[in-house]
Amino acid sequence: MKKGSVFNPFKAIRFLFQKPKTLCYPFEPKEPAKRYRGFHLNDWDACTGCGNCADICPNEAIEMVEIAEIKPEPGRKNERPKLDYGRCCFCGLCVDICPPGCLSLSGDYFHIHFDTDTFTFIPKNEKSDGEHFLAPPDYSILKASLSHRKKDFPGFSTDLDYALFEPERVPMPQVEPEKRKLSFIEQVLGYSEEEAIKEAERCLECQLCEEACPAHLKISDYVRAIRMRDPEESLRKIFEDNPIPSICGRICMKHCEDACSLAIRGEALSIRWLKRFAADSVRDYKKVLEQKPAPPSGKKLAVVGAGPSGLSVAYFSALKGHHVTVFDSLPGGGGMIRVGPPLYRLPIEAIDKDVNYIASLGVEFRFNTTIGKDILFEDLLNRFDAVFLGIGTTVSRSTRVKNAEKCILALDFLERNKIGERVKPGRKIVVIGGGNVAMDVAREAIRLQYMNYPGEEIQTSAVSLEDWDIMPASREEIEEAKEEGVRFHPAWGPKEVVLDENGDIKGLLCMKVKRVFDEQGRFSPSFYEDEEMFLEADMIIEAIGQAPDFSFIPKELFENLKFTPRRKVQVDEFGMTSIPGVFAGGDIVNINLDAVTAIADARAASEGIDRRISPKAPLPTSL
Amino acid sequence: MRELELYFGPQHMGMVGNFSITLKVEGDRVVEAVSNPGYLHRGFEKLMEYRTWIQNFPIVCRMNVVEPDSMEMIYAMGVEKLAKLEVPERAHYIRSIYLELARVGSHLFGLWAYSNMLGFDTVAQWAMYHRDLILDLFEELTGGRVYHIYIWPGGVRRDFPKGFKDKIVTTLHSIGGCVPDYNNTFFENRMFYKRTEGIGKISQKEAMELGAVGQVLRATGMKHDIRKTEPYAAYDKVPWDVPTRENGDACSRVLVIRDEMIESVHMIFKLLDNMPEGPVYNRVPNPLKWTIPKGDAWVRIESSRGELGLYLVSDGGDKPYRAHFRTPSYPHGLIILEKLLENASIADVGNIMISLYVVAPEIDR
Fold first, then answer.
1. What residue spans define the domains of chain B?
2. Distance (Å, rounded) from C-alpha B24 to C-alpha B319?
3. Does any CB of chain B come closer than 8 Å to the CB of residue A424?
4. Is B247 within 8 Å of chain A by CB?
5. Which residue in A has a C-alpha nearest to residue B281's C-alpha?
6. How many other CB atoms are there within 10 angstroms of residue B28's CB atom?
7. Which superfamily does B42-363 belong to?
8. B198 contacts on A by Cβ (under 8 Å)
9. Which among B139, B149, B193 is the nearest to A33, CB-wise?
10. What are the tens digits of pLDDT across the range B219-271?
């Protein structure tokens, strides 16, 4: 310590000439930083109402409230977060967990009001609520409140790199394209236990998927069970709504994954593969499920078609104690699922696992039995208390262009390859169609070519009316087909099958598509007649869609069967057709044309069947 | 002479925080002092048992208003140790810079309290202003001024914004430029020495026996700092020194605080120069479902007031089974303060208390 000078205090005079360090508040407002964590903003258009913000809030400051103006739809609830600023601590966890990234914090940090009720508040943003967002010059500290917000005043916002959820899915182990195109081995290998648990951990349990699933499976419950290392419980949850998990776990059209909140900015949870994991990790369903059908009701139900809807109706009805007999012309269960999806997507063992379990519940299966030929449909109506039609669409449509009769139809091709004698493929194959069946056909064709002509020059191409953007096949199917070497010619339509002098196929003459749908959105393709392309081919397969075959229904009964404008069988809410006692479901009823919608139909129909034939339940007036 | 009971706080001009001391005085000598925490009991440790691992971050930081960052750091370290999480290299540097900024801010706050107590109002206002500049830095980095909730298991919540490095340097230079002013008016002021020398003196042996940590221990000549002995974050990546003093009185403690601030600023510059590029965050599993394997962890760091420890137990669930903090204010506020106040004059009560730098919520956990 040194002795200071007497004049030392006078040095302080220089501070008199410095500018003040403080702000002249409120005339000189403090500008918050770019990441400032102020009051919430919520983009209502992007918000899905998933409620993850409310789940993570450590102070329970967020409550999801229903908004009457918003119409709920699959993947979007009509709930929006409501903030209680008496509790909010502005930590921003809600912003970092928000899957669509719609929730953010603003630079606003004032709220002045006499009324304490104004401290609870449903945040919106400028887009959805223009009137409360003032232009900057209009905004003042005296006006500042939750109902007078500064415009374009963003603060802490979402960043996918730092989000609290995992946007990327655990990759599914698959056989490489180069290897899998040489045989029919199953392409997807399935998750290991560790992979499945890791994937299941990504689930935020917002249950948006359950709304979107036609059969309303309890997805978050069974995913949680997998996470808790209990696949058996998971399977029990699945079987409450879906009796064919081994099939659905492989070929489901996964409407749930489209609705998954993780899919908005990342990849959806692999719900389908997790279901498959649950089904595959339980070897013996019966031991785990321990389901006991109700005491026999003495009522008999005939199910025509052992496809997904037929199997499901049989399962639900058998549990209710009815005696179910399932008729199918194929030698095994599964219906179109048995013949359609190629072996590399759905092996026969996977189908039989589900079918055998349903059989073990007392369901009688009569395979190789064709209704209308082996047994008459009228006999069914007389001998059984109710009949369910789950016949599916079994006849391939033809393009009916010139010489189209020389072509092979998709279903014949698929059926022979899967359960019959394999087709000997051509060296140059053209597949007509852009749907999932066309992808199956093309990918099977290329496999057969590799197996039959190893090392030789081969070619499989797919011609579709639709361009890339509207091609009905799923994106992953298209990508996988490309990986395996299928060449695509989108937006070309068939004009003529060209034959050589021996009457064999020489190739396909195509014309450029002008448009596929008309102004009303109906399917009505038109072409540029002068723009032509010739594709050389020695085999052409038509995969442009299927139709149902109702020829087994006698004419006088068929006249009573009503159809919807979209040529679907008309049913009531319990799946009953216009013929009393005859129920229907699956592809002949719904427009989704997939297994899980068929299960949903079957669920409703089994309810209707039970009400109609069971003496205990009162008959609803509508029946 | 008659003994008199005197209540010092919780509502007292000289009291910082929710804390009080009951003094038994005889004349103007203190005969006995009893610390009374408990004015702020929010039950943090119990609350933590009811919140998930991630939801606890907004709570732990509230255990120390002055320097919430070391609380975030230690909790994140505990969780990382239990869950065996790796932290990217750059995040280590960012954490160190962030914690040193917090240390400077916290010490400036302490300087405000101390100079205010001694009647140096101008110095107090300077210190408060300079602390505000540091809070501005935090606002820009994290979005919050006081509770930052920035350190995260697996790294930090966001990377540096654009131009933030320069902003740190400019701010620290402007604060450092005022060090001569501080020295002239306060640290080299005769009045300061008159008030502090020999006050609240504690010997090294006694300090160790009573569990003193941080600058209380370093002011007795003990060169002890967790950042040196058990380096965490990036403290072993750059050279730096542990400042100490010999006398163990209030004067030494405050001078150690000043030296530490200057050392921290130098350390920040070195860390900024050596900071690598790369990711700053290894994503934690879904926080709504995150379960941590069964186990327990003991971690400790050097907060601005001394050694801070956390014992964290997981029973394999999504919430901590038990979290127990060993905070520096605990021995300082409850044991050493009572000891040092014996035979002190009433005028020195605030002086001694603030030189120990007690933060009440750390005791009331």
1. 42-363
2. 45
3. no
4. no
5. A162
6. 10
7. Cytochrome-c3 Hydrogenase, chain B (1.10.645.10)
8. none
9. B139
10. 999 999 999 999 999 999 999 999 999 999 999 999 999 999 999 999 999 99
